[in-house]
Amino acid sequence: MNTVETVQNEVQQQHLLFQLLQTLDNGLVMLDQNYKVMLWNGFMENHSSIPISNARGKDLFELFNDLPEAWLKRKIDSVFRLQTRAFCTWEEHPRVFDFKSTRPLTGQSPMMFQNITLIPLLGLDGRVAQVCMQVFDVTEIATKKIALEAANLSLEQLSRTDRLTGINNRGFWEENLEQEFQRCKRSSAPSSLMMFDIDHFKHFNDRYGHLAGDEVLRAVASQIKRSQRTTDLAGRYGGEEFAIILPDTNAQKALLVAERLRSQISGISIEWEEQLLNVTVSMGVSEFDKNMQTHQSWIDHCDAALYQAKNSGRNCCVVAAPYSRRHD
Description:
CATH topology of the largest domain: Alpha-Beta Plaits
Order of helices and strands: HEEHHHHEEEHHEHHEEHEEEHEH
Largest sheet: 5 strands, antiparallel
Number of helices: 12
Low-confidence stretches: none
CATH class of the largest domain: Alpha Beta
Distance between the termini: 107 Å
């Protein structure tokens, strides 16, 4: 093969290589140590609307004012210094370049999610001469994962929520009570349990119907959510009975919380078929005692105080006698 043919072959190979780089489905940006653009392929041109001729020789951070400059420079500098690759996934940083999604109508995101790979390119002296930044469009993968996580979260929320009232169901609430019980066993911090039910609820249902009863249950649950502290955990224990865990709260403070909620519920007026309906509740309060054997012992102790409140005329709160005294 003569010299002319050799040169022609090399030119042909370079031409094919250039076409390959320009038609790749991911971005390629070659940078020198001063962040100057040495190579800019078709992907970058198409998504940024910056022609190759305008990008070559320019500072990357002057071309894009909205880049995370400090963070990205640290990434690039580490590749030059350590001569090893660096990566960034969309979960760490959703996107480096604010490119629009290629499928904004059928996709789930108007903007492109990106994975970034930074590759060291060695010069003839064995040192890193340039860094090649690869930009991968992972929008479809990212949006599917986000949608799946949202669906799983929604299912988890449904599995622990009482459908009628929107507060925690008994299963989830009782799991948390058991955890609180074990925490109290390990520590000396006080904790109280509050249980209550709606007075004469059966008679209420018989008079106004179950749909009216459901509306009352929702109204009571809404008041619980409005008034409970961020650390409290409420649940529908069953039927017209509700329960609230009050961490770091002794019986005296729990009684104040119970009285306030009882008063608030008694002041609720529920509109039903051109009538205003009112209900009251009876409440029992029990402070954790180290002599309780299980979380069920705690529930039983609190439930006994609840029935005492009912027997005392209803629409009142009763604090259970100390557990140790009752079980001597």
